Amino acid sequence: MTDFAEYVTDIVHEPTQTDSPGFDLTVAAVYEIVEPGRIDFGGGELDAAEVVPHASEKRDPDDDYEWWTLRGGQYLIEYNEPMTGEATVTLQPRTELLERGAFHPTLDVDALPRVPLSVGGAGLKLKENARVSTIVGAEE
């Protein structure tokens, strides 16, 4: 069995993130896309989309972590755990995310970019450090 934890750093809580097959990644930030990016044929007019952090708040003043309230739409999520660069991993959304009407694409990556998150019409409440994705395969 592969120890996927060897491919990431800054792990939030390894026993929890490895308690099922694969390795769970946690959300550090959520961004809204506020201005479109540009993609052209040759790359000379390639421009990043303008993003801003999505506001979060504590449900209770004594809470340690904040929550994002996401309406239906598109966002970008950023993970707490950067990759070591020693493998290309397959990343997929966790079942818990899918069952709440949200998803992101399954990706093969050797670095963890911001990942597009689609949220269904009813929205989603997402807690800081929530496990949203799972590394399910690796190729060195």
The N- to C-terminal Cα distance equals 15 Å
Q: Give the low-confidence spans.
A: none
CATH superfamily: Deoxyuridine triphosphatase (dUTPase)
In the CATH hierarchy, the third-tier topology is known as Deoxyuridine 5'-Triphosphate Nucleotidohydrolase, Chain A
Radius of gyration: 16 Å
Architecture, CATH level 2?
A: Distorted Sandwich
The proportion of residues in beta strands is: 35-45%
Helix and strand layout, with pairings?
Blueprint (H helix, E strand, L loop, with lengths): L13 H4 L5 E13 L14 E4 L2 E2 L9 E4 L2 E7 L8 E6 L1 H4 L3 E2 L3 E3 L5 E5 L4 E4 L3 E9 L1
Q: TL;DR of this structure?
A:
This protein is mainly β and 140 residues long. It has helices spanning 14-17, 95-98, and strands spanning 23-35, 50-53, 56-57, 67-70, 73-79, 88-93, 102-103, 107-109, 115-119, 124-127, 131-139.
What would you say this structure looks like, in words?
- The chain has 140 residues and is mainly β.
- It has a single domain, classed as Deoxyuridine triphosphatase (dUTPase) (Deoxyuridine 5'-Triphosphate Nucleotidohydrolase, Chain A, Distorted Sandwich), CATH 2.70.40.
- The protein has helices at 14-17, 95-98, and strands at residues 23-35, 50-53, 56-57, 67-70, 73-79, 88-93, 102-103, 107-109, 115-119, 124-127, 131-139.
- The strands form 2 sheets. Strands 1, 2, 5, 6, 7, 8, 9 and 11 form an 8-stranded antiparallel beta sheet that branches. The chain has a 3-stranded antiparallel beta sheet with strand order 3-4-10, with no helix packed on it.
- The protein is globular and about 45 Å long.
